[in-house]
């Protein structure tokens, strides 16, 4: 019995020892995992903390705050060319620039056509030749003209004969002469030409074609000996002393345009040259495809430098306006806002937000931010902006 109890006690103690050994092994397996987790906990703040600290200034430092100031030494102000002005009323000259195209003036442009069929016997002018009103530019051998000239000659001879005889048929003969003259006038002959034709003793009877305009032959496609039909185009003659410019004005600018306004026309072919003109017509219909209105301008071209077909830039002079305004170069953009630099004491310049209207010929009307009499940097504001940017990014 005692031996049995001793045996169980001995086995129990051995079992306890084995159990303790198992527990120790589990503890030993857990210890490395605990140490690894503790190391990660210690390392994470060390890595993440500085990164967060660096990110916060970057987000806030990139935004320039209004009211920031820049200080320059007297030497820097002098060498940078900064200028300070006082806000006051400025008389602004307004202009409107629109595109245009030079065209012929229809009042000084003709197409000579054949009033009767015939053959070109004489061609006296060619393309580019100057002509004057009434000048014969070509002559045709034309059977209809010869018949009309012969009819006039016979009618005048009969009338003169009846005058000598004091005949009762004198009135009828006079009507025949008048009818023959009208037929020749419809062919384009002047009264002087008809008179000369009636008194002429020659028998060539070539049909003269004369210019009804003083100008220049723009186009001539016929040749001597060519047959032409009645109504055929013989040549085109135009005067280039006054031309038209067709300009296109946007719908939003229509309230600025009216007939009688003075304009200046410029072309790329002659830089530095300008040509004076005047608006003579505004089209009553808006072109829906371009949302523009055609504007007609008459321009002087005595020197003959302008040519139809040229593209032109038209400057329309608008009434002047008076407004509190600053030069465009005085305004800078910081953080998406318009600012202007205001001088303080001891070379300090402060950025101040300003609200302006649309630019007009290099000036911007001031709506808010400055009042009349305030001083501001009118020239060199970009240098102050650069210094402000330099200081801001330097702090980052």
Short account of what is shown:
33% of the residues lie in helices and 35% in strands. With 396 residues, the protein is α+β, with helices and mostly antiparallel strands.
Describe this structure in words.
With 396 residues, this protein is α+β, with helices and mostly antiparallel strands. It has three domains: 69-92 and 322-395, conserved putative lor/sdh protein from methanococcus maripaludis s2 fold, CATH 2.40.420; 98-104 and 240-319, Elongation Factor Tu (Ef-tu), domain 3, CATH 2.40.30.170; 110-238, OB fold (Dihydrolipoamide Acetyltransferase, E2P) (Beta Barrel). The protein has six helices and 22 strands. The chain has helices at 2-61, 74-80, 143-165, 170-186, 191-199, 381-395; strands at 69-71, 83-86, 89-103, 109-113, 118-123, 130-131, 136-141, 207-210, 215-220, 227-228, 233-238, 242-250, 262-267, 275-282, 292-300, 311-327, 332-334, 337-343, 348-353, 355-356, 363-368, 375-379. Strands 3-12-15-14-13-16 form a six-stranded antiparallel β-barrel. The protein has a four-stranded antiparallel sheet with strand order 1-19-18-17, with helices on one face. A hairpin with a 6-residue loop joins strand 20 (355-356) and strand 21. Helix 3 runs antiparallel to helix 4 (170-186). The two termini are 90 Å apart. Mean pLDDT is 80; it is low at 1-32 and 34-64.
């Amino acid at each position: 019995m005692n031996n049995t109890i001793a045996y169980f006690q001995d086995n129990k103690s051995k079992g306890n020892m084995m159990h303790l050994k198992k527990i120790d092994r589990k503890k030993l397996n857990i210890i490395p995992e605990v140490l690894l987790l503790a190391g990660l906990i210690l390392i994470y703040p060390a890595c993440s903390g500085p990164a967060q600290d660096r990110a916060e200034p970057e987000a806030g430092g990139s935004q320039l705050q209004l009211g920031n100031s820049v200080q320059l030494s007297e030497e820097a102000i002098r060498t940078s060319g900064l200028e300070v002005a006082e806000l006051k009323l400025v008389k602004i000259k307004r202009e409107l620039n629109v595109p245009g195209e030079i065209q012929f003036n229809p009042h000084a442009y003709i197409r000579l056509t054949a009033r009767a069929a015939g053959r070109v016997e004489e061609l006296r002018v060619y393309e580019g030749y100057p002509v004057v009103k009434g000048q014969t530019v070509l002559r045709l051998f034309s059977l209809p003209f010869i018949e009309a000239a012969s009819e006039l000659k016979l009618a005048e001879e009969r009338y003169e004969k009846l005058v000598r005889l004091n005949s009762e048929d004198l009135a009828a003969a006079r009507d025949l002469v008048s009818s023959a003259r009208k037929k020749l006038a419809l062919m384009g002959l002047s009264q002087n030409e008809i008179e000369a034709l009636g008194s002429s003793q020659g028998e060539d009877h070539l049909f003269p074609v004369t210019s009804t305009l003083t100008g220049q032959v723009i186009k001539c496609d016929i040749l001597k000996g060519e047959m032409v039909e009645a109504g055929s185009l013989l040549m085109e003659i135009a005067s280039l002393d006054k031309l038209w410019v067709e300009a296109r004005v946007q719908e939003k600018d229509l309230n600025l345009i009216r007939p009688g306004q003075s304009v200046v026309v410029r072309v790329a072919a002659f830089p530095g040259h300008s040509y004076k003109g005047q608006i003579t017509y505004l089209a009553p219909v808006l072109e829906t495809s371009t949302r523009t209105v055609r504007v007609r301008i008459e321009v002087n071209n005595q020197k003959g430098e302008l040519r139809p077909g040229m593209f032109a830039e038209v400057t329309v002079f608008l009434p002047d306006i008076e407004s509190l305004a600053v030069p465009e170069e005085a305004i800078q953009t910081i953080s998406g806002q318009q600012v202007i630099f205001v001088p303080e004491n001891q070379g300090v310049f402060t950025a101040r937000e300003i609200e302006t209207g649309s630019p007009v010929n290099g000036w911007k009307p001031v709506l808010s931010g400055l009042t009349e009499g305030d001083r501001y940097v009118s020239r060199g504001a970009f240098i102050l902006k650069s210094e402000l940017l330099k200081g801001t990014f330097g702090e980052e």
